[in-house]
Design goal:
Elements lengths: L13 E2 L2 H15 L13 E2 L74 E4 L12 H6 L7 E3 L11
Parallel strand pairs: 1-2
Antiparallel strand pairs: 3-4
Length: 164
């Protein structure tokens, strides 16, 4: 039909039960122990709302665009985990290790980060350098060539409404 705008469809997230999450975590543990049957934990685009991952080793796990609303991640090891675009509202991250975790675009509204280790975690994109106007001479554009983007550390990123 001409002139009819279609609405963008909401992404469909598969909701995982506590038992399914525990099974994925066991395979992830086997991977870290170099035992047969191990596999990286991939929760990308999954709904893990209200699930307990308390004290789990989920280093290098993938939580890209996952819905983690109300999850308990107390004491979890989440080093190098990818939380890009994840919905982490009201998540409990007390004493969690999130070293070098990717939190770009993640929503941490109401999250409890008490004692969480966010060393070298990436929370936001670094600001872009100012652009040289197109009318500037070529020599001045070369002199002020933009520098590559760097990871912005969490201590410089605004984390709103998170309890620390």
């Amino acid at each position: 039909m001409i002139g009819v705008m279609s609405e963008a469809a909401e992404p469909v997230r598969r909701t995982l039960t506590q038992e399914e999450v525990d099974a994925v975590c066991l395979k992830h543990d086997r991977l870290w122990q170099a035992r047969p049957g191990g596999a990286r934990a991939v929760f990308a685009w999954m709904d893990l709302s209200g699930v307990s991952l308390r004290g789990r080793n989920l280093a290098d796990a993938d939580f890209t665009a996952a819905c983690l609303i109300g999850c308990d991640l107390t004491g979890a090891k989440l080093d190098n985990a990818n939380f890009f675009g994840a919905d982490m509202q009201d998540v409990t991250l007390v004493d969690a290790s999130m070293r070098r975790a990717d939190l770009r675009g993640a929503c941490l509204r109401g999250a409890d980060l008490s004692g969480a280790d966010l060393f070298e975690a990436t929370c936001a994109r670094a600001p872009s350098p100012p652009r040289t106007p197109s009318w500037a001479s070529a020599s001045s554009r070369r002199a002020s060539a933009p520098t590559p983007r760097r990871r912005a550390p969490c201590w410089r990123a605004p984390i709103c409404n998170a309890r620390a």
